[in-house]
Amino acid sequence: MKFFYSPNACSLGIHVLLEEIGKPYERLWVDFSKGAQYKEPYVSLNPKSKVPALLRDDGVLVTEWPAIAWYLAKTNPEVNLLPSTIDGEVRTLELLDYMIATVHMRGFTRIFRPAMFTPTIADEPAVKQTGRDIIDTGLKLMAQVLGAKAYLLGDYSIADAALFFLEHWAVTRAAVQIPPALEGHLERMRARPAVQRALAAEGLV
Ligand SMILES: N[C@@H](CCC(=O)N[C@@H](CS)C(=O)NCC(=O)O)C(=O)O
């Protein structure tokens, strides 16, 4: 299996899951500084020009964070990365979609790449502020879901890997304060050996 990533991109969360699973995989850096995501050979493999992407041993490419995480959880049931009930599965999907489609794509992307949201440079501060507001609301909602639990759904799951990269971005890339309840979650995540291995492999520690 080949895992396509870029250091400190959202692929970090999938990197964590691959390390939790612990089976061999090949890690391939898509160098954004060289625009490698828009060039051959990557663009033919993944015309979306995004990471994460997972190339299975049967040649099938899996893209989109929630789909990759779901695939990894379902194909490695012994690692218990998903709740076992239908209600738990639905709740996991609900959290993943919100964290990726809203908090990442509509929030953080506004801060990292404001020019994608306006053709006018003078508007970029307002775009970034809207991003901060979306992140703020999103992280507060995740803190409510977490409550006094150790992990979002009680037991550790793929949803925690998504929340981890959002928390990590907030603290290391966006200077956004995270709610106190999430500080504990971030510390618990950082204490996991799989998280430490993924951060080290991406040169983030
Ligand atoms: N909807 C995609 C989003 C992936 C995404 O936006 N990845 C970013 C890195 S965090 C990327 O590859 N950006 C490269 C680019 O847009 O040029 C998913 O869920 O995987």
SSE arrangement:
Blueprint (H helix, E strand, L loop, with lengths): L1 E4 L5 H11 L4 E4 L12 H4 L7 E3 L5 E3 L1 H11 L10 H27 L11 H23 L11 H15 L7 H11 L2 H9 L4
Parallel strand pairs: 1-2
Antiparallel strand pairs: 1-3, 3-4
The structure holds glutathione (GSH).
Description:
By secondary structure, the chain is an alpha+beta fold. The chain has 2 domains: 2-78, 3-Layer(aba) Sandwich (Glutaredoxin); 86-192, Up-down Bundle (Glutathione S-transferase Yfyf (Class Pi), Chain A, domain 2), CATH 1.20.1050. Helix content is 54%, strand content 7%. It contains 8 helices and 4 strands; from the N terminus they run E-H-E-H-E-E-H-H-H-H-H-H. Helix 1 packs parallel to helix 3 (65-75) and helix 4 (86-112) packs antiparallel against helix 5 (124-146). The radius of gyration is 17 Å and the shape is globular. The site of glutathione has 10 residues, from loops.
Largest sheet features = 4 strands, mixed
Mean pLDDT: 97
Radius of gyration: 17 Å
Distance from first to last alpha carbon: 25 Å
Strand runs, count: 4
What ligands are attached or bound here? glutathione
CATH class of the largest domain equals: Mainly Alpha
CATH topology annotation of the largest domain: Glutathione S-transferase Yfyf (Class Pi), Chain A, domain 2
Kindly state the percentage of residues in helix.
Answer: 40-55%
- Report the order of strands and helices: EHEHEEHHHHHH
Organism: Acidocella aminolytica 101 = DSM 11237
Keywords: Transferase
Protein name: Glutathione S-transferase
GO molecular function: transferase activity
